[in-house]
């Protein structure tokens, strides 16, 4: 059944500049100061982008201002690990929410696995599972993979990578704990170096929105047409984003916003509406869960005003006009 007010029409007519102007006056939150580059972020930076299933990208605000992707890289590391291990990564990392902070020094009881790929322990492990015989090879594979998700060549901020590695004490602790449990097969320092470099990849909201859309479209980039990962991998990643992507605020996020998403300490949020669109919001001031304050508000307004809450009664993804053809439909 076709909706009388299809999402495609709402997307075409939606005023992103108006949305930004309504949210911009919000002054809550604090800029993360875990590394100098994040501490120096402009608290007034506020950009939004939408990438539709037909490849059109719309934006508002400082949409080409670059920033380090930080924790928003985690869904894509998980996707690459699943792809490169033929799904074996699902045996190596859990997929359950924790109710704990993103950097909690905690593994699954009895297994020694990270609880899910969206917390730091899980991301350290999934980055280490990406194909490559050494650190340089894994770094190259990750950067090429992220570039395919974005539909453009991405680069690493070398200063951010250096400081993430040098100042990531809790990440080093988590990596050593996983080594002690037999979960992590590479050295702790190698694991932290690869993850730190992945977090330091520079994107803007346009690139991040296309990355979210690639997951939403079953692993196929709607701008380039490249099948980056399989439909089943994209499905698994988006499912874990829904349950774990906003850490101990994930349940509240899915009730109120209803779009699978991943937050980051840079202030970026990447969102994926399955079969419909990807979106990204960037605003550095964070709430206590480490989620952008303006980004959370803007995401909620987008969800309501575009009618894309994935659990919205009467407006399910299956009913929506303009939904993208979802990947290669494999069942692997």
Short description:
This protein is of the alpha+beta class and 332 residues long. It has 14 helices and 8 strands.
Q: Overview of this structure, please?
A:
With 332 residues, this protein is of the alpha+beta class. It has a single domain, classed as DD-peptidase/beta-lactamase superfamily (Beta-lactamase), CATH 3.40.710. The chain contains 14 helices and eight strands. Helix 4 (74-84) runs antiparallel to helix 12, helix 6 crosses helix 9 and helix 7 packs parallel to helix 10. The longest helix is centred in the middle third of the chain and has 16 residues, at 135-150.
Structure keywords:
332 residues; alpha+beta; Beta-lactamase; five-stranded antiparallel β-sheet; three-stranded antiparallel β-sheet; 14 helices; 43% helix; disordered N terminus
Secondary structure blueprint with pairings:
Blueprint: H1 7-13, H2 16-23, H3 36-39, E1 47-52, E2 57-61, E3 67-68, H4 74-84, H5 89-92, H6 120-129, H7 135-150, E4 155-156, H8 158-167, H9 169-181, H10 188-199, E5 201-203, H11 205-216, H12 231-244, H13 250-256, E6 261-263, E7 268-273, E8 277-282, H14 293-306
Antiparallel strand pairs: 1-2, 1-8, 3-5, 4-5, 6-7, 7-8
